[in-house]
Specification:
Layout lengths: L2 H18 L2 H8 L3 E6 L4 E6 L2 H10 L1 H11 L5 E6 L37 H12 L8 E4 L6 H15 L5 E5 H13 L3 H8 L4 E5 L8 H16 L3 E6 L11 H7 L3 E4 L5 H14 L6 H13 L4 H18 L5 H7 L1 H7 L5 H12 L13 H17 L4 H7 L5 H16 L7 H14 L2
Parallel strand pairs: 2-3, 4-7, 4-8, 5-6, 6-7
Antiparallel strand pairs: 1-2
Helix pairs in contact: 1-4, 5-6, 7-8, 11-12, 11-13, 16-17, 17-19, 18-19
């Protein structure tokens, strides 16, 4: 397996592991791991561990977690094997200082044409396109934020690919904040800070992924501050991604917070049901999976069961395709439930506003779009109020947030609707009214796996 392919796989596994472990454990034991090789014949993924203690802790505490995440990315299960650097023939990458190279560490699949645009990411997508088409002159810096697995890195890589294609003379550098920090530490340890500064301050486009990881790291923040100033003053394009907006980043110096927000800050929200279906349909087309009725049914099932994380969404689809290919089975609803039983069980109690709206719309035979419209006829308004009521009862969303999800309505409108339904329910203490029966039926339907 080629080095860049190996590193790309490991980056995707790292993204999964980050959500499965505590921040301290992840940064202490997993981030320092170096992928060395994949033994495809014996199904082993080989790592270089950072010392005896790290090797022991990884083998005893996190071995199964890493194996599980590997299996979600790779087409078949692999077993993680941890070796010490001295046990590996030749020098590992960590033992060598890598200077700047024109080769980009970008995922070839992360391009604009494979990014599905929906209401949740329209603004971020438009901003990214503007930067890609006119770097340093559109939005500088560009700061993309949102929860893990929503497409921030995809957009960042797409910008890099586009700039590299349209302006091959520009030096484009993509790096994660962990890599930036680790390289800085190594440069300090080896007294090669000048090489580090020259590398990062002589580029045209600087892309730093997951910048939230520099919180609390004073030396990294100091170096990033000066790198930012040098590049910005030279009119070079800077792009950041994070899981939170600059204003919510704790343990970050004020001077950096202000610089992160001095350009354009764009958020990415979880995709709605229709966008999730579009994402999986696009993935099937890219992977050359024929869209039979069974495949489309499976796509709709996954889109309904996994409501928030695109990476989990695509990972679930990958597992089904891989299982079908390896076992020579046909893709079907039954196969989906068999292969993704663990995923669906973990998601069965996760009730989202999108799920509530669709269930209520189906129950009352109204269009989903009517909930966001200005229509006030009783056959639309009453189901809308019931949906708002259930959102307040069954999720942790605030009234203003619920209002946003129903066509941008004011929180007082949401409160009025919720209070009306609660009052109508209380008017019949026996629990035998049609409304009582409807509410209970909807709650039961929503709680079903």
């Amino acid at each position: 397996m080629k080095k860049k392919e190996l590193e790309q796989i490991w980056r995707e596994v790292l993204e999964l592991l980050e959500s499965e472990m505590t921040k301290t454990a992840f940064e202490t034991w997993v981030v320092p791991l170096k992928p060395i090789n994949v033994d495809q014949e014996n199904d082993k993924f080989i790592f270089a561990a950072d010392g005896e203690m790290a090797k022991s802790i990884l083998e005893n505490r996190y071995h199964q977690t890493i194996n599980s995440c590997l299996s979600q990315i790779l087409p078949k299960p692999y077993k993680a094997v941890f070796l010490l650097a001295e046990d590996i023939d030749g020098k590992t990458e960590e033992q060598q200082y890598t200077p700047y190279t024109d080769e980009l560490d970008l995922n070839p699949k992360y391009i604009f044409s494979t990014f599905v645009v929906g209401k949740n990411n329209q603004f971020a997508h438009a901003a990214s396109l503007a930067v890609a088409n006119n770097p340093s002159n559109a939005h500088n810096p560009l700061f993309l934020y949102g929860d893990a697995g929503l497409g921030k890195t995809h957009l960042m890589h797409a910008i890099g690919h586009s700039i590299r294609k349209n302006s091959p003379n520009l030096k484009v550098l993509y790096v994660s904040s962990e890599m930036f920090t680790n390289e800085l530490i190594k440069a300090i340890r080896e007294n090669r800070q000048m090489e580090f500064k020259n590398k990062y301050r002589s580029i045209d486009v600087f892309m730093l992924d997951d910048v939230q990881f520099i919180e609390g790291k004073d030396s990294t923040q100091e170096e990033l501050f000066h790198t930012f100033n040098t590049l910005f003053q030279a009119n070079k394009q800077i792009i950041f991604t994070s899981d939170k907006p600059p204003s919510k980043m704790k343990g970050l110096e004020e001077r950096l917070t202000s610089r992160f927000g001095m350009g354009l800050v764009a958020d990415i929200q979880p995709p709605d049901y229709e966008t999730r279906v579009a994402i999986l349909t696009k993935k099937a087309e890219v992977d050359e999976v024929y869209l039979t009725d069974n495949v489309l049914e499976v796509i709709h099932i996954i889109a309904e069961k996994i409501p928030s994380n695109i990476r989990e969404l695509e990972g679930a689809f990958n597992r089904i395709i891989a299982y079908a290919n390896l076992s020579n089975a046909k893709i079907s609803k039954d196969l989906a439930y068999q292969v993704l039983q663990d995923v669906f069980v973990s998601k069965e109690k996760e009730i989202t506003p999108d799920l509530i709206k669709r269930q209520v719309a189906k129950h009352f035979n109204v269009k989903l779009a009517d909930f966001d419209s200005a229509k006030r006829s009783r056959n639309i308004a009453y189901p809308r109020q019931i949906a708002m009521y259930l959102c307040r009862e069954m999720t942790a969303l605030s009234l203003p947030k619920i209002g946003e999800l129903f066509g941008g309505r004011d929180h007082t409108t949401v409160l009025h609707g919720c209070e009306k339904i609660a009052k109508d329910l209380a008017a019949d203490a026996s629990g035998s009214s049609e409304l009582q029966t409807t509410i209970e039926a909807l709650k039961n339907e929503l709680k079903q796996p």
